[in-house]
Automatic annotation (TrEMBL):
The keyword Hydrolase applies. Its EC number is 3.4.19.12. It comes from the Eukaryota. Belongs to the peptidase C12 family. One of its GO terms (molecular function) is cysteine-type deubiquitinase activity. Keywords: Hydrolase, Protease, Thiol protease, Ubl conjugation pathway. This is Ubiquitin carboxyl-terminal hydrolase. GO terms for biological process: protein deubiquitination; ubiquitin-dependent protein catabolic process. Residues 5-158 form the UCH catalytic domain. It catalyses: Thiol-dependent hydrolysis of ester, thioester, amide, peptide and isopeptide bonds formed by the C-terminal Gly of ubiquitin (a 76-residue protein attached to proteins as an intracellular targeting signal).
Amino acid sequence: MAKVEWQALESNPDAINPFMEKIGVTSVKCVDIISFDDDVLEHLPKPQFAMLLCLPDYKKVDALMAPIYEKLRSECVTPPANVFFMEQKIGNACGTFALFHALANIEDLVDLGSGSFHKWLEAAKGLGIDQRSDLLANGNFFFDIYNIVCIIMSEYGS
């Protein structure tokens, strides 16, 4: 089976926020953090629940993380029950996976709505870490929505 590839989700609130709305998450918004200086951070909207770090060289990240993941697998280490995690098996989906991890891990703090993200998350919770990505790749939760966001992203372009 060929590896599933998605259009990359741009690391831009102008793309991420419409995407979240389309998947039914309207209670939170993404903003850019332009600096970690105290005077800049104090002006960020509150409360803050998560941070998405966008790393420009995924190959370096993959090389760095591969031995860590392999060690965790060989030792049969799993995340704590209160931490949602899934293995990324979809190409170009780093931003989407980061967003989904962030949203899934704040579900007790915010209303994630009743849209496609909520439906997928409820189904994914019953699966193993390695199966959750398959549910994204093979399920019909987001396909049409993701195509819409590709159009949104092309309008805002980077």
